[in-house]
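> example.struct
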């Protein structure tokens, strides 16, 4: 049987909630991508986070990841994140720099407030040319908060995981 891993980065908790639901439905292991320097998850401080994220983006930063992630045993690796400034958070570049997903199947998903996947699934295909990429799932933030078990189940069936 294929081994599944759900890897996710989340600050406000919506990509986390989606990740947990995917893991629940697939029986996958669940691992958070933890930054060395935590981001402020207080939504009242959005402007400060937006500014920091923009700075990291403009500087092509590679925010460090705290935890060691072992992707080796897994066949299918779900990778989830929020949209930040029309792309994924720069820590995802750190992930793709550090780990080689060659021979793995990557299944992306993301949360957003209108940008959809913003072309990030194509970016993943460019960064990991030797991985197989399945159709991803963009989830709007409020829908992610409401829980999307039916939509997630349909998607997992469509891509042949369930
Ligand atoms: C710094 C920052 C930048 C964002 N940029 C975008 C964007 O470009 N497009 C979009 O649709 N949503 C954008 N959002 C909204 C997030 O994608 C959305 O709130 C998401 O659900 C957050 O995921 P999380 O709860 O897992 O952190 C942005 C949010 C933040 C904090």
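> example.seq
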């Amino acid at each position: 049987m294929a081994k599944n891993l759900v890897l996710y980065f989340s600050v406000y908790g919506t990509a986390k909630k989606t990740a947990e639901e995917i893991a629940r439905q697939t029986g996958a292991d669940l691992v958070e991508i933890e930054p060395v320097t935590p981001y402020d998850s207080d939504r009242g401080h959005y402007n400060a986070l937006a500014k920091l994220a923009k700075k990291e983006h403009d500087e092509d930063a590679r925010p460090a990841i705290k935890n060691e992630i072992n992707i080796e045993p897994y066949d299918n690796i779900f990778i989830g994140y929020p949209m930040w400034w029309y792309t994924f958070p720069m820590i995802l570049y750190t992930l793709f720099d550090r780990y080689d997903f060659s021979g793995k199947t990557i299944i992306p998903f993301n949360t957003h407030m209108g940008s959809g996947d913003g072309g990030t699934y194509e970016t993943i295909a460019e960064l990991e040319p030797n991985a197989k990429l399945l159709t991803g799932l963009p989830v709007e933030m409020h829908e992610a908060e409401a829980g999307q078990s039916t939509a997630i189940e349909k998607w997992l069936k469509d891509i042949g995981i369930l």
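> remarks
The chain has a mean pLDDT of 98.
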